[in-house]
Amino acid sequence: MKQPFKKPVIHPSAVVHPGARLEPGVEIGPFCVVGKNISLGQGCKLHHNVTLDGYTTVGPNCTFFPGAVIGMAPQDLKYRGEVTYLEIGADNIFREYVTAHLGTANGGSYTRIGNSNLFCANVHIAHDCVVEDNCVFANNVLLAGHVRVESNVNLGGSVGVHHFVTIGKHAFVGGMSRITMDVPPFMIVVAAKGPRSEIRMINGVGLKRSGFTEDQILALKKTYLRLFSRKARSSGVPILTTIRQIKTESPRDESVDYLCNFLINAYEHGRHGRYLEALRNDSKWEQRQTGTGNE
User: Fold this and answer.
1) Residue 170 annotated in active site
2) Which of 43, 67, 89, 145 is catalytic?
3) Whether residue 128 lies in the annotated active site
4) How high is the pLDDT of residue 3?
5) Bridge partner residues of 101 (DSSP)
6) I need a surface site. Which of 20, 92, 134, 225 has the fewest CB within 10 A?
7) pLDDT at residue number 290
8) Would you say 129 and 143 are in contact if contact means Cβ atoms under 8 Å apart?
9) 145 annotated active-site
10) Nearest-CA neighbor of 144 among 174, 99, 185?
11) Active site residue: 47, 101, 124, 127, which one?
12) Are 73 and 83 in contact (CB under 8 A)?
C-alpha cells in the first residue's frame, strides 16, 4: 500500500511566505526563498538556495536543485510590473542555476512548462515560452522570449534559440547550434559553417525510442530525402512545391502530414522562417499602452 504524503518539511533557515500554498510532501531545504503567490504540488523538493517567486504554480513531484531561480520578472523592457504567470506541470527536474521567467501581458501573460522535462544546469527559459512534455535541455541552453518547444525535443549543450522560433516535436538539435528559424519535427539539426544551422537527417534513434514503427520512420526518411537532401536542394524545385505535391499523395503517413503542415506554416505563413513571428502583436500592444492606437 502506497504511503500517504507527509506534511511539508521546511528547513529553519528557509524564508517561506505564509501565503504560499504547499501541498503534502513538499520539502524545502536550507536558505530557500518561496514567495507569497507560489503553489507547490505534492512531493516537490527544493534543495538549498532555491528561489521561487511571482505568480508561479508548480505541479507535483518537481525537483529544484541549488541556485535555481524560478518565477522572477521577465527580462523585457515592455514589462511594467503587471500580473503575469508561470505554470509548471508535473515531474520536472530543474538542475543548478536554471532560470524560468514569468510571461508578459503583450505575450499572453503566461510562460508554460509541461510535464517530465529535464532542464540541465544554466538553462534559461524566457518570458512567454511554451515547453511541452518529455523534453531534455542540456547545459546552457538559452530560449529567448516567445519560443515554443513541442514534446520529446532534445536540445544539445549551449544551443541558443531566437525569439518566436518553434521547435517541432521529436526534433534533436546538436550542441552549439544557433537556431533562428523553425526546426521541423522529427529532424536532426546541427551547426553548420558560420551562423547557420542545417537539417542533417531524421531523428531515427529518437523516433525508435519513442515507439515509432519502422514503416513510420521509413516514410519520414523518404520525405526528408525529397525535401532536404542535397539532390532536393540542387533540383531548383521550390520546397513549397514539393510539400504541396506530397500533400496530394495518398495514402499519407500521419507524421508526414504533420511535418508538411509545420513547414507550410514556417515557410509560407511565417516571417523569416518563424511562424510565431507572423503572429506577434507588439505594435498593437504599444499603441494601446500609449493611447495612440484606434480601438
Assistant:
1) no
2) 145
3) yes
4) 61
5) 72
6) 225
7) 53
8) yes
9) yes
10) 99
11) 127
12) no
